[in-house]
Amino acid sequence: MARRPTKAGGSIARGGGLALGEAVFRSLCEALQAGSYRAGDRLREEEVAQRLKVSRTPVREALGRLAARGFVEPAGGRGLIVRNLDISEVLELYAMREIMEGAAARLAAEHASAPEIDALRDIEQAFVEASETDAAEMAGEMARLNRAFHEAICRAARNRYLDNASRELQDWIALLGPTTFTVSGRPSTSHREHQAIIDAIAVRDGSKAEQLARTHIREALRCRLKLLQKQ
After folding, report:
1. Cα–Cα distance between 166 and 200 in angstroms, integer?
2. What is the pTM of this model?
3. Could you give the CA distance from residue 165 to residue 118 in angstroms, rounded to a whole number?
4. Are 44 and 3 in contact (CB under 8 A)?
5. 92-135 tens-digit pLDDT
């Protein structure tokens, strides 16, 4: 099967207040999260520079940062490739995710405003509508809405350090490949889990919200392991 083309999005906007190297780095991270780059994909300075319409210097800087964080690795003198996480790294990643998502849900139950809880319900409604569509691309849309759901909970937790750590964790999750919403039955069970978490946050039950969030991530890991078994 031919590998799909990879891309890092459109050109970098000038004048946005970011140094060019930082803007390129963020663009590449966003491409990882969107699935534009996946494990095994090759990243070459010249190709990325052409896509983003920048010189090779900020691209070299951004790729160096990705390599320092372990997202990419050398590809035998022919650029860099996106790393493929081994099973022990996957288990460690989900163990940390369970802790962080549980803490975020507990804190959100303490701090979330009524509009933030309403926003969670709106995101979940959009997730349900996407899950009821048969189009194959809806798995990607569900993954996007799922990220938005967890990011909204983390913002409602009112802890900048947790928020920053969660964003970095999402970059690592992007290396795992296909979304778990491709596993049969996962969209419906995920919706029920999300709804229960929202309800616990709404009634200010931090202990229950944390417990439900941790269970939710354990179920996500179970589905992830199913996908890895098929590879």
Report:
1. 21
2. 0.82
3. 25
4. no
5. 999 999 999 999 999 999 999 999 999 999 999 999 999 988 76
